[in-house]
Amino acid sequence: MINYYRTVEGVLRPTDCVEKNCWVSLIDPDEKEIAYIAQELNLEQDFLRAALDEEETSHIDVEDDQVLVIVDIPVATEVDGAIIYSTLPLGIIFAPDNIVTVCLKENSILSEFTTPRRMGVNTAMRARFMFQILYKVSVRYLQYLKQIDKISKDVEKQLHRSMKNQELIQLLDLEKSLVYFSTSLKANESTIKKLARGRIIKLYEEDEDLLEDVLIEVGQAIEMCNIYSSILSGTMDAFASIISNNLNIVMKLLASLTIVMSVPTMIASFYGMNVAGIPFAASPYAFWIVVLITLIATGIAIGILVRNKMF
Q1: Beta-carbon contacts of residue 130 (< 8 Å; ≥ 6 apart)
Q2: d(CA 218, CA 94)
Q3: What share of the chain is helix, strand, coil (3-state, %, to 5)?
Q4: pLDDT of 226-240, one tens digit each?
């Protein structure tokens, strides 16, 4: 899918075709769309395909008067009622007179710029527009990290009430998301620092201020990611220990019950033998005597177990 946008009188408006100083947005383009945009803007097709690889890492490529900047953006997907956080590459291409973005899926970051009558965006100022996108990316990371922290606290409260596999799996998914975020944020930071040197793209004073804000937000996101990851890892270890301890308690209780139940079983087995000379065999009160002996022996066994804190 191809969409065109251009700033007219300070407002970002959609257009019907490629124009000078416009923004071309490609979402999961097919080969025909890639070939068309490459021909219209005289771009390398490999630049347009680079961001369509889900495993592509954040980096910068320069070819003649074209610059490709790829950054990882955070995305949230709902699966079976649970929110899964991951990252997705976003390609930003500097053409001679245009800026092009390429992404595999619709995402909330670019959607914010395409809201009706969006102001504060000038597609003719390509560098600043790209830094505005990067700033939104870093802010979205912070928002999702706060959501992950809130979800992990809610799941932890549920685990305090009852240990269920569903909650533990959800914590594992959150821990995996933090690993993705941490890796992507560090790669993004490296890419942004290269841009901040001003050797690849010419920077103006306002651009430098905006880029500095982006670096601050990215640094804060990395720090939050490390903190939340450490907390979540410690929480998982703690609950693993609790589950192991609960299992030990259950096994100890079952072993104690087995010992208690074995006492009457052994006495009943002795008196079930078909041999002569069994005590109280001729007594009319033999049954009650055996029951009494059984109760006394069982009580002694329970007392020993209680004294050793087996119950």
Answers
A1: 69, 92, 94, 99, 201
A2: 22
A3: 60, 20, 25
A4: 898 888 888 777 777
The type of residue at 162 is S
Quote the CA–CA distance of 51 and 54 in Å, as a whole number: 7
Distance CA 166, CA 159 (A): 10
Give helix 126-161 / helix 205-270 axis angle, nearest 10°: 20
Residues 6 or more apart whose Cβ sits within 8 Å of residue 56: 50, 70, 89
Order of all β-strands in the sheet with 99-103 = 59-63, 66-79, 82-94, 99-103, 23-27, 2-8, 11-15, 118-119
Reported as a single tens digit per residue, the pLDDT across 59-87 is 888 887 788 899 999 988 887 777 888 88
pTM over 0.85: no
Instruction: Give the SS3 label for residue 115.
Output: coil
CA distances 196 to 47, 193, 200, 210, 242, Å, are: 22, 5, 9, 10, 48
Query: Is residue 72 within 8 Å of 79, Cβ to Cβ?
Result: no
| Residue listed under structure tokens 């905006």 | 210
DSSP 201: S
Structure-block tokens of residue 124: 């003719």
pLDDT at 266: 80
User: Is the confidence at residue 183, as pLDDT, over 80?
Assistant: yes
Q: What angle do CA 106, 109, 112 make, to 5 degrees?
A: 100
For residue 57, give the DSSP letter. P
